[in-house]
Amino acid sequence: MNNETGHEVADALGDLLKRSLRADLHRALTEDLGEAVDEVTYPVLSGLARTGPRSAADLAADVGLDRSGVSRRASRLEAAGLVRREQDPADRRAVLLTLTTRGARTVEIMRQRLASRIEASLSSWPPEEARSFAVNLRRFVDEGPFTGPTEQQ
């Protein structure tokens, strides 16, 4: 069986997931949003926007950091009024991180910036190809190899 397409997608994903590329993008998306909002704290803000209130440990798994890394970043964001800590109503011993109204507005600005950058990068594509790419990327994310246990080959 020929795996040419699989290799091509894997190579493109490897390029896309490079830490330096993500850091550069996060830096651009957070520019001028305040001292606490930068490429380091971006994953915490973005993660909370996607998941809603979470413990530092649960959020860590979602954003690819360890619990202490999430806690340090959350402290910076809390001092800036973007995140707050709340007692977990389901477990009085646990603490949840949640976005404040200001934090949610900051995330919306970052999302708008990201959407604009994506739209600009697709502007030379025929509209139907750009739309097809969006639909198929969503399908790949929802149904692709990252959705469950992988088989060893």
Question: Topology, pairings included?
Answer:
Blueprint: H1 4-16, H2 19-30, H3 42-51, H4 56-63, H5 67-79, E1 83-88, E2 91-99, H6 101-122, H7 127-143
Antiparallel strand pairs: 1-2
Helix pairs in contact: 3-4, 4-5
Question: How does this structure look, described?
Answer:
This protein is mostly helical. It is built from seven helices and two strands, in the order H-H-H-H-H-E-E-H-H. It has helices at about 5-15, 20-30, 40-50, 55-65, 65-80, 100-120, 125-145, and strands at about 85-90, 90-100. It has a two-stranded antiparallel ribbon. It is globular, with a radius of gyration of 18 Å. The two termini are about 15 Å apart.
State the main characteristics.
153 residues; two-stranded antiparallel sheet; mainly alpha; 7 helices
Summarize this entry quickly.
By secondary structure, the protein is mainly alpha-helical.
Strand order of the largest sheet: 1-2
Average pLDDT score: 90
Treating each run of at least 4 consecutive H or I residues as one helix, how many helices? 7
Proportion of residues in helical segments? 55-70%
Oligomeric grouping of the chains: single chain
Major sheet details: 2 strands, antiparallel
Shape label: globular
What is the string of SSEs from the N terminus onward? HHHHHEEHH
Question: What is the radius of gyration computed over CA atoms, rounded to a whole number of angstroms?
Answer: 18 Å
End-to-end Cα distance, whole Å, is 13 Å
User: What is the beta-strand fraction?
Assistant: 5-15%
- Secondary structure: number of strands: 2
Secondary-structure-based class equals mainly alpha
Low-confidence stretches: none
